[in-house]
From TrEMBL, chains A, B:
Top-rank lineage group of the source organism: Bacteria
Signal peptide: none
Start and end residues of each HTH marR-type domain: 15-150
Biological process, per Gene Ontology: response to stress
Name of the protein: MarR family transcriptional regulator
GO MF term set: DNA-binding transcription factor activity
SMART domains xref list: HTH_MARR (SM00347)
Organism of this sequence: Streptomyces mesophilus
Alphabetized InterPro entries for the sequence: HTH_MarR-typ, MarR/SlyA-like, WH-like_DNA-bd_sf, WH_DNA-bd_sf
Stored Pfam families: MarR_2
DNA sequence: CCTAGAAAGTTGAAATTCGAACCATCGGTG
DNA sequence: CACCGATGGTTCGAATTTCAACTTTCTAGG
């Protein structure tokens, strides 16, 4: 008989507003970042990978680790790296210790691109996000979101 | 000579952390919401359209308005509605006053689906977002994000 | 009235993403 | 050592998204 018909706890006015605002910022911001990166021929995805690689030991990362770090499926990353490889930003290299494995390695060109684009991207992030809030707001936001990120990380299987 | 080489204002440690956390929540949350909707055969996109329609006068909206409301391109929305039409959730109807125009109208089935799914979706939003913060955090977050949404809305052209 | 844009939507092809199936190698166990 | 389930990655086909035409209808100016 139990067909799960407990009265749902609907969102209050405020909660609803908060949620929708969040969703809106989410999309609008993504759109804007994407747009600001476009003149350099990069997507957010490209950029994030460049960041990860350039912050890594030897400018390289195992495909798996990169997939985990950027929260993408293995399949998607594989395609993504192929495209970036064609664009000359990245190169695949075999892993000695595990012959199944591959590294994605930042090329010189990739590194140069990174250096050129980073300032613009940072400016964009500031202009459309960071600089629009007070340091207190930022701190509060971070404190609120951090545990949520943790929670969500534990929830998910392998995307 | 001006080649735009002012020293960029890099992000501070805290800012960097806030930004990355935001990005992470962004993706993880989207992923989770999507996943929780999957058993009902809906995507976030589907759901959002159902919400918009069910909150509208006569359960209908002009394609353009719907596109604007959901922040999608006309093209994307058109395909989207076609799919939902095939799924029986929505139906297209001509506009009397403007013969170029079309309405997307919620069907009975669409309305029923909405009613069935909404409680689960709300529960999901609570579980993975709203209920993970205090009311104060939520209020603060809303207050911070609201102006950002405004700013971003003014920035963008037609996606 | 006529015409040149603009606006509303659709369409089709190309690019991206997803999911499942697949291949090869690893690591542990009997 | 030989087997077997896990890991690391790629690949293929289907679904989704994007981008650039294209059609039809409006609207405003002359």
């Amino acid at each position: 008989m139990e067909t799960d018909n407990a009265t749902p706890r609907w969102l209050t006015e405020d909660e609803q507003c908060a949620w929708r605002t969040y969703l809106a910022v989410n999309r609008l911001l993504t759109y804007q970042m994407e747009k600001d990166l476009q003149p350099f021929g990069l997507t957010m995805n490209d950029y994030e990978i460049l960041v990860n690689l350039s912050e890594s030991e030897d400018l390289r990362m195992r495909m798996s680790d990169l997939a985990t770090a950027t929260l993408q499926s293995k399949s998607r990353l594989s395609h993504q790296i192929t495209r970036m490889e064609n664009a000359g930003l990245v190169r695949r290299e075999n892993c000695e210790s595990d012959r199944r494995g591959l590294f994605a390695v930042l090329t010189d060109e990739g590194h140069a691109t990174m250096k050129k684009v980073a300032p613009h991207h940072v400016a964009s992030v500031r202009k459309h996000y960071i600089d629009l809030m007070t340091p207190e707001s930022l701190a509060s936001l971070r404190a609120t979101l951090k545990p949520i990120a943790e929670h969500l990380r534990t929830q998910r299987g392998k995307p």
